[in-house]
Amino acid sequence: MRLQPEEVGISRPRGQRSSADPGLRREEVAELADISVAYYTFIERGRDVRPSQEVLRSIGRALHLTAGEQRQLQDLRTGAPRHPHMVLTETGEEVQELVDVLDPNPTYAMGARWDLLHWNRAAELLFANWHRRPHEEGNMLWFYLCDPYARRLYVDWEAEARNQVAHFRESYSQYGHDPSFMDLLEQIFAVTPEARSWWERHDAPPNRSGIKRVRLPDHREVGLRQLVLEVADNPEIQVVTYFAGWDDSEDDDDD
Fold first, then answer.
1. What is the side-by-side order of every strand in the sheet holding 107-110?
2. Would residue 50 be called left, alpha or beta, if left means φ above 0 and alpha means ψ between -120 and 50 degrees?
3. pTM for the full model?
4. CA triplet 224, 229, 232: central angle to 5 degrees?
């Protein structure tokens, strides 16, 4: 259903109302988006004016677009699917609140290229202070394959790393047009050469949810159950959380 003028605070004189065109007029959208009518007309007609992301966001707010509709509007800017990791630089308040409230369960949110968007304190502790890493290393695939800490953290690091490569290929199949995906892979292959052969195998990815066996700093091995959630309004964003699965050391207690 079209957005009605009264829904955005526009009141037309009775003689200007038309049942044939009940939605917002071009000049009304332009005013709400704080751009000129001529510029909005060029955008609407597909002229080669290359509006900025901020202009498109303003139009999206003016039209009360959903997150999915806003993504489609961004796609029109380039005539091709957008670069998701460049657009999704934050998760939104609701996702951040979810990640934070799940503490003390280690939880983080990541974008389509697996760039980290938000994480809670428990995730910082489990993954060794992400916030101290260089910005270019704030990526989960990089962490799994290139961070020395990951090799110590996961009991069977190679199996875990190969599984993550298979999962990342799913994202690549949707966003492979984005050159930054291959840029990331080439950087990873330079640091971890065996990852290239794993990538070329085209292995079928296992289930995302399941038990991850990790080795804690005190050398205890524990099982953490992983759950992966997809944000309905922003399907590029995934929320990953860990909670207690089992702890082998409990079996050895005498109490």
1. 116-119, 107-110, 238-247, 221-230, 210-215
2. left
3. 0.63
4. 170
